[in-house]
Amino acid sequence: xxxxxxxxxxxxxxxxxxxxxxxxxxxxxxxxxxxxxxxxxxxxxxxxxxxxxxxxxxxxxxxxxxxxxxxxxxxxxxxxxxxxxxxxxxxxxxxxxxxxxxxxxxxxxxxxxxxxxxxxxxxxxxxxxxxxxxxxxxxxxxxxxxxxxxxxxxxxxxxxxxxxxxxxxxxxxxxxxxxxxxxxxxxxxxxxxxxxxxxxxxxxxxxxxxxxxxxxxxxxxxxxxxxxxxxxxxxxxxxxxxxxxxxxxxxxxxxxxxxxxxxxxxxxxxxxxxxxxxxxxxxxxxxxxxxxxxxxxxxxxxxxxxxxxxxxxxxxxxxxxxxxxxxxxxxxxxxxxxxxxxxxxxxxxxxxxxxxxxxxxxxxxxxxxxxxxxxxxxxxxxxxxxxxxxxxx
Length: 393
Hints:
Strand content: under 5%
Low-confidence stretches: 125-133, 389-393
Order of helices and strands: HHHHHHHHHHHHHHHHH
Shape: globular
Oligomer: single chain
């Protein structure tokens, strides 16, 4: 009974926060149908965040205690398991109360705005579902498609991978990510070649992509170490990641095919192919950021959300500039392949052992890697812009 009492007390600020958010939505929306359109992505996002407590290796830390919904999900888990910590409990409650105040003040501000309350039907809105419901290359359809894939990945993909990690990853990539994307474009009679970007590109793009792979992996690993300082990663999580990336004797090629080649083809087809194309009309930066953020969310891993999202920005930039899916596919393969090689040979090669086996030393490479990455991206941008101009002439 005491556990349920604690959960009831903790629920009050959470319910208040969600009520304030929904109040803001109802104030902005012009009718109940439009309000429900706004509500759907919020509810799906909340469900995904709440499911974090179901994943092994995630424990309530001071960092997680500041993240809405995730903090309550992990807090409830710890309370029910008898691991109550008053300090973390107060952080969760305090941070949520602070968000409550902000959300309520925002609701009041909206409610006092005549421009919001008395809008006409012709004015623009944030309505989730667009007028052209048959156009699969619209942000609305792409977002809905992403939600369906995310749900399939969480429920069916997780079951496959729990039964057998290797065959589960293969099934997930092919039957949940690749085939639904191709099927959607096929049923809608979209031009698959132009939508995905199956276009030839200059060999120099592959060379520059190969050169960018090393500073990119250094930046990703450094970000992981910085995140670990704020949100300490549990030992069990690190052991599972190590086990996943470690190849059995004589099976290095199979591991590379499973973790580098297959994701490079399947995930790029969905994200840099379909989803990026669907958001292109929204502008270069918008398409880049949204597709990258969805790419990070799909991995269902808060510890890797920032590094994977950054990788998505990088891959999206390569796609938008080269207009060829083969470049981000190649970059994705190099990134994952290097992660596999560093895991398997990091303690055998002196240079890799010196930097990648020490969390402090790798941070010394972060700044030079950023400068090198910036220079190579600028060169990549200049070469492809020049080629586009020549092609137009």
